[in-house]
Amino acid sequence: PMYVPPEFRLDDPAAIDELLQAHDFGLLVTAGPAGPEATHLPFVYDAARRLVEGHLSRGNPQWRSLERLAAEGGQALLIVQGPHAYVSPRWYQRPAAVPTWNYLAVHLYGTPRPVAERDRLTAQQRRLAARYEDSAAWSLESVAPDDMDRLMRGIYGFELPIARLEAKAKLSQNKTAADRAGVAAALEDRPVTNSWHAGRRWRRWRRWRRSAETATLAGMSESPEDPPSAFRRRRRLSSGSRGWLLVTLLLAALGVATLFAGGERPGQAEGIWTPGLDLQAHRAGRGLRPENTLAAVRHALETGVTTLELDLGLTADGVAVVLHDRRLNPEITRTAEGTWLVEPGPPVHRLTRRALAAYDVGRAHPESRTAERFPEQQPVEGARIPTLAEVFALAESLSDGRIRYNLETKIAPDDPASPAPEAIVAAVLRDIAAAGVAARTTIQSFDWRSLALVQAEAPEIATAYLTAERRWLDNLQRGHPGPSPWTAGVDLDAYAGSVPAAVAEAGGRIWSPYYRDLRPGDVAEAQRLGLAVIVWTVNDPADMARLIEAGVDGLITDYPDRLRTVMAEQGLALPPAFAAEADAGE
């Protein structure tokens, strides 16, 4: 597979479609009897049928490998290179940096199908020629029949249905806002490999986007007027590509806005791509199953989500465990004998893993607020508090290594029941490394101290900065003298009150605000700074639809089934559902 860190992931189907339409010369790779085989060749991408068409000379022995793969069900790889450019360290604000290269690339995998029938092979070549030739000036019909017969006998036509796809947009998303701005400015006046210009389109789109987002977040009941048709797909661009696919390369005259030209997005075969909107199951979907349990993980995967959002604590013996509260919650916790706790239990970080495993968290107390808030939650008797390692093992097995994780460190600067940031981060990073899931994992927290540690110790892992400005939790403390104790020394007032600016400068890749805290202009500002915006916790379908229209990159919800319905109504690609094991218990 192609190495794709999460911040470089390009997962918008419409963007990928247009990239494959615009860059139709690739490298076909197969395993031959004498080793790897590779042929550079033009192709035609058929978005509706989700396949590419191409041909090889029969003088090229690789056609026999395609024939063998077709017979045996093996896969070939087609590598497609998009725009790319050298990036000099002189363009960064930080002096101690090294050069790099920005680029877009797509890998297509599939089992080839031979195109042997003469009429189909001729039609295939006609489609290829039509992409480059004006039919009034030249067409295949102008070739003499004898010559055409000889040419057709000399080629091997094939189709490559896309069984799997990987797309990468490495566009400086891992740099600071200042560094990204420097790259964009430096590339503006420089030639870029395989580039084309779209400056006026970009400016036109941004004018529409600003006005539409302002109206939507202000609570308009009807959707804002659609943007010019050439830009409708831009609204679905996702976290890995939204900000800097269009900023770093568009402003750099790469013209990637061309990727989003055209009409509405075509349908997508489920399971080929991760959807552009990140559907996150809050506490693994606590509206439907007991929160943060293995049963909830199974059900979320069976429902179909992009990401499992989970909470993390730490035991006295240094084990990362999956639970929300820093003390055992009496609303959902019973002893091994079945007795409900009558008050919060001891701090989790003072209990061993073995002691913690004795408690049953498989149902809500019938007279609790939890039971009242989540009447659809199905109990699972005997459910225990799982370790993070156990969740990874189950989810990786059921999803075949395709699910993503958003892990929240449940620590607080003013709570004696809270473990030390260094201790919980060390345990979590250890489990992530052991499971091999760093490229699909985000770590989030209201306490930004843990995020600074992750960025220093594991910069390949994305960090999400949680924020709330509510009576029940205000980790920003806007207007208070000095920085908040939650923000690791970052003083919001030093950024003129701009939360996205503070998060970007702190090194975050994702801003995750409480959805009711969003103000008009926030989403556009965050994405302009290269941040993805993933809001929490959204359970009302009307709110979901409004936030999608506002352009957020993802939603965290207790009810993933509701969000799937809203996404389907809006024509968004849905994340694949994974078959659960027969045993739905713990």
UniProtKB/TrEMBL annotation:
Pfam families: FMN_bind_2, GDPD. PROSITE patterns: GP_PDE. SUPFAM superfamilies: FMN-binding split barrel (SSF50475), PLC-like phosphodiesterases (SSF51695). GO terms for biological process: lipid metabolic process. Gene3D superfamilies: Electron Transport, Fmn-binding Protein, Chain A, Phosphatidylinositol (PI) phosphodiesterase. PANTHER family: GLYCEROPHOSPHODIESTER PHOSPHODIESTERASE, GLYCEROPHOSPHORYL DIESTER PHOSPHODIESTERASE. Residues 277-567 form the GP-PDE domain. CDD domains: GDPD_SpGDE_like. InterPro entries: GP_PDE_dom (IPR030395), PLC-like_Pdiesterase_TIM-brl (IPR017946), Split_barrel_FMN-bd (IPR012349), TR_PAI2-type (IPR007396). The gene is paiB. This is PaiB protein. One of its GO terms (molecular function) is phosphoric diester hydrolase activity. It comes from Symbiodinium necroappetens.
